[in-house]
């Protein structure tokens, strides 16, 4: 009961101006977390006694009148397909292309122009970065041209690329510079991935301004190749009333940014028609929003894949699927026997978002409609069978090794330190990072010069990821796909019921998730919370593989 009470503090527009890039650009790598510029202050007003409904919309409340309305973006257009990154190579097995990150103006709200940062020229088509559609065995060579006013990198989220090709924050590409990323996709890497910037402390902003795109790696022997594919890339957008990209406010930094819009392939609430059984690939490219996906009521679907590709066996009869920020999934959606309609919805989900009052949480996120689906099975739409075995997945951990105690163990602890006094101090907001909030891994915020953990290439390890904070955090590890072994909550252990390859896993408040993982290449890998504001605030660390 008491957790449902709260105190919302509103932030004036000036106070909420937390655009960091100018200040970031001037800081050296080392003093960023310690230095707070106290300029750009404003006053904060207490607004006690608001109703629960208002609390659920605290974002809107905190910037009331400054955000575009929830219907400002047109809805109801047919689902856009991705732009495609064109292969400039004619050599077999080589995918060579150019990706330009640049400021682009687009008319999203009729009559207004929005300054975005996008991949590709994007004068037309979806604002989602172009699809990189490649095959196992391909050598991929992407020339990245940075036309942003900030340093950037491209990170190949989930792909087993060499550490020095993975867009680490310690390998920035300067504004105006060009960099070539090169890697070869191994056998078994078929799956659904994405790419996004990963510069030190500027990832959140670059993504919320529009930089992110999908990758599909295909296998020659794909058991679901006969299914027509549908691609749904979810992203978040927060627009000010003048249709500009709104800055982060205090609540965005604390809980991760959630806009008033969830976009599907770059548009609000598109519609799609399913005329036969389809394979859906889903990307949660939102900065912080969890998507508890449902087709409404009792309508079921079959999950066939996770981040790193197909499951060993399909999971039938699901009515919902939780995708944490950064996660992907594949599912088979049936056209059914009769025409019908459904709303693809992000159902109610409680990730224990915090308020600015110690120990209090916001209510669960309300349901949000994402897309309108019409099922129109044609006369030729015979149901396609999903094979009972999709591909073999061997457990990374052999029980013999575990029993013999031969498996190296590592511990990752997510923690937070909230100094509510500092957060509420008059004029507490400034032009860099918000004061009084620390999101930590193993007791420290990210320091690019510090190695938190060291692993040996080729050695399978068990990692325990423990969440000691008051809210949920999606854990992500670079360079590999891992297997979740079990989850532990208040002493009760639940073994993971199915084998899957993942690079991102949600760790609930108070929970410990155990994974089996192995790195193949020597070098430095990042691991972090995939709520991008938390990552930028320091909930990230470096794994050194030797
Ligand atoms: Cu998708 Cu290190 O990130
Ligand atoms: Cu990643
Ligand atoms: Cu987090």
From TrEMBL:
Q: Sorted alphabetically, which keywords does the UniProt record give?
A: Metal-binding, Oxidoreductase
Q: What is this protein called?
A: Bilirubin oxidase
- Please list the GO terms describing molecular function: copper ion binding; oxidoreductase activity
- State its location(s): Periplasm
Please name the InterPro entries in this protein's record: Cu-oxidase-like_N, Cu-oxidase_C, Cu-oxidase_fam, Cu_oxidase_Cu_BS, Cupredoxin
Domain Plastocyanin-like residue range list: 124-220, 435-545
Transferase is among the record's keywords = no
Say if the entry is tagged with keyword Transcription regulation.
no
Give the highest taxon in the source lineage: Bacteria
PROSITE patterns (UniProt xref): MULTICOPPER_OXIDASE2
Q: What is its main location?
A: periplasm
Specify the species: Paraburkholderia diazotrophica
Q: What span is annotated as the signal peptide, if there is one?
A: none
Q: Name one GO cellular component term.
A: periplasmic space
């Amino acid at each position: 009961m008491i957790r449902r009470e709260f105190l919302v503090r509103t932030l004036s527009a000036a106070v909420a101006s937390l655009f960091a890039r100018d200040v970031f650009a001037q800081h050296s790598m080392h003093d960023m977390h310690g230095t707070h510029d106290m300029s750009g202050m404003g006053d904060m007003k207490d607004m006690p006694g608001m109703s629960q409904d208002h609390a659920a919309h605290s974002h809107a409340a905190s910037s009331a009148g400054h955000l575009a309305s929830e219907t400002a973006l047109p809805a109801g257009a047919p689902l856009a397909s991705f732009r495609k990154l064109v292969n400039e190579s004619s050599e077999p097995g080589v995918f060579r292309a150019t990706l330009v990150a640049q400021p682009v103006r687009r008319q999203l709200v009729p009559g207004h122009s929005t300054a975005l940062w996008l991949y590709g020229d994007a004068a037309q088509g979806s604002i989602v970065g172009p699809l990189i559609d490649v095959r196992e065995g391909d050598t991929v060579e992407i020339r990245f041209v940075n036309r942003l006013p900030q340093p950037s990198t491209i990170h190949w989220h989930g792909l087993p690329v060499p550490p020095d090709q993975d867009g680490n924050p310690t390998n920035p590409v300067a504004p105006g510079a060009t960099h070539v990323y090169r890697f070869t996709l191994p056998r078994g890497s078929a799956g659904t991935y994405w790419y996004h910037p990963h510069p030190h402390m500027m990832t959140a902003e670059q993504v919320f301004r529009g930089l992110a795109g999908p990758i599909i790696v295909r296998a020659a022997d794909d058991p679901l190749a006969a299914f027509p594919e549908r691609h749904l890339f979810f992203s978040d957008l927060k627009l000010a009333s003048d249709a500009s990209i709104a800055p982060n406010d205090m609540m965005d930094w604390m809980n991760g940014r959630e806009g008033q819009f969830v976009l599907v392939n770059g548009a609000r609430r598109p519609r799609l028609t399913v005329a036969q059984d389809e394979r859906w690939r889903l990307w949660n490219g939102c900065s912080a929003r969890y998507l508890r996906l449902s087709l409404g009521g009792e309508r079921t679907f079959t999950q066939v894949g996770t981040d790193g590709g197909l499951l060993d066996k399909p999971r039938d009869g699901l009515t919902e699927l939780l995708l944490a920020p950064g996660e992907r999934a594949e599912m088979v959606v049936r056209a059914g026997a009769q025409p019908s309609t459904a709303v693809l919805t992000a159902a109610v989900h409680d990730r224990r978002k915090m308020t600015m009052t110690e120990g209090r949480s916001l209510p669960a996120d309300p349901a949000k409609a994402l897309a309108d689906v019409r099922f129109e099975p044609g006369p030729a739409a015979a149901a396609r069978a999903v094979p009972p075995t999709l591909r073999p997945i061997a457990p990374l951990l052999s029980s013999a090794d575990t029993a013999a105690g031969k498996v190296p163990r590592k511990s990752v602890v997510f923690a937070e330190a909230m100094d509510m006094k500092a957060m509420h101090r008059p004029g507490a907001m400034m032009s860099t990072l918000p004061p009084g909030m620390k999101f930590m891994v193993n007791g420290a915020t990210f320091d690019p010069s510090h190695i938190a953990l060291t692993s040996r290439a080729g050695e399978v390890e068990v990692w325990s990821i423990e969440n000691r904070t008051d809210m949920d955090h999606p854990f992500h590890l670079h360079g590999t796909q891992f297997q979740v072994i079990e989850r532990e909550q208040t002493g009760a252990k639940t073994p993971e019921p199915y084998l899957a390859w993942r690079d991102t896993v949600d760790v609930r408040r108070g929970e410990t998730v155990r994974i089996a993982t192995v790195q193949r290449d020597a070098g430095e890998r990042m691991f972090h919370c995939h709520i991008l504001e938390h990552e930028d605030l320091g909930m990230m660390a470096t794994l050194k593989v030797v």
